[in-house]
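ESCALATION

Customer reports they have been waiting on this structure for their group meeting. Please prioritize. Original submission:
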Amino acid sequence: MTNSETAPRDLAPGTELELDFTDLLANGQAVARAHGLVVFCFGPLPAERALVRVTTRKPAYAVAEMRKLLRAAPERADPFCPVFGECGGCQVQHLSYEAQLRWKRDMVRSALQRIGGIGDAEVAACVGTTRPRDYRNKMALVVEHRAHGAAVGFYRARSHELVPIEACPVVAPQLSDYIARLARAAPEDALGVALSEATHVIARCSRKGEAVVSVTTPQDDLGLAGVSARVLEALPGSVGLADSCAPKSANVVMGRRQRLLAGRNEIEEEIGGIRYRVSPASFFQINVEIVERIFETITSLQRGSARVLDLYCGMGTFSLLFARNGAEVIGVEENRNAVAEATSNAALNGLEKRASFASERVERWVRTDRGKEALRRAKLVFLDPPRKGSDEVTLRSIASARVRHIMYLSCDPATLARDLRLLLANGYALHSVQPFDMFAQTGHVETLVTLERT
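Update from on-call: job pushed to the front of the queue and completed.
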């Protein structure tokens, strides 16, 4: 056993040493240094000292596993899930929730400084949830077929190795109960038949206690159709069952071809007085409480903008908020099914005259005549892009149109900082940066940024 000062300089696999950890990455790995080499290890927290064993050695870094915690930080918490550290779903259950919120604020601030070159950004305290457990309204279980029957669970971090589970403390209790029932299912039971050809089971629930379930299979599963009614009976509160067909060669959770087998394929959720009908495949946020907090912030900042352009609008979650607040809204989204849901939900809320939607890739749409005219007329552009962020064509089109106000909702601080750098260089000033904890116990953070034309 050695400490970092006396450790072998090559840090070959198998080397054991004591290290002091200083940083925590979004993937849950803590960071230390030995002889100028960065060492990543899951388990320790900043300000902790641990005995570790090197498992991987690369030219620029090493990866280690924690053997023993030698000094604990005050922020350390006891993980509440028995498979934490094995399952890849959560990264920071060992960090107290208050410390998680501070850490996420720091992640946003650091990304803005390092990537965006924004050294003076004022980042507000991260808005947390009152329920850092059992908050997720959707789950996508992996099904693995073994000699004794099907096992359900989630993948181990950075692998496709299944971690079997019988419950999950971060999904809604109704969904966690479904996991237990599926894990105990005998092959001859309705749930066992449903799992017999499955690769994934996707379920979404509402706060009213209704749920819809979709089973992904390599081909249309006639056996599943025959037990569909019994499957609904075996999953309390479920109101619909669908089959999602995805070939074995396709590495997807849900296939393109979907078939409703029993009941209905949608449930209803209400956020801020707006009704949404959502299916297992919907682009709908998994933490309704935090969406409500984002709604409140957007409403306080909207300033009565008469014309809003919602880019990457998904199923219109935020388009309908702007329309409900009195704006004329155009939403743009490349997924046709999401646009169909957005149109339907606008009608459900009597907002079809204020909200219209276009099915097109955003970077293409902004270069069309309609897109250029919409940008010219817009008082506010709202962006909610995927993790990869927006693109230079879209951002330059917004800047060229000299749109007065921009709101950017990001799920990745790095791509947010990159995109802000371009906007700030093209005539915009940063007005506010507000992080939200949409995904408690994980390294993900949602951030709402507002910018104004200078």
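Sent to customer with the following note: The chain has three domains: 2-71, 109-129+282-453, 138-270.
Escalation resolved.
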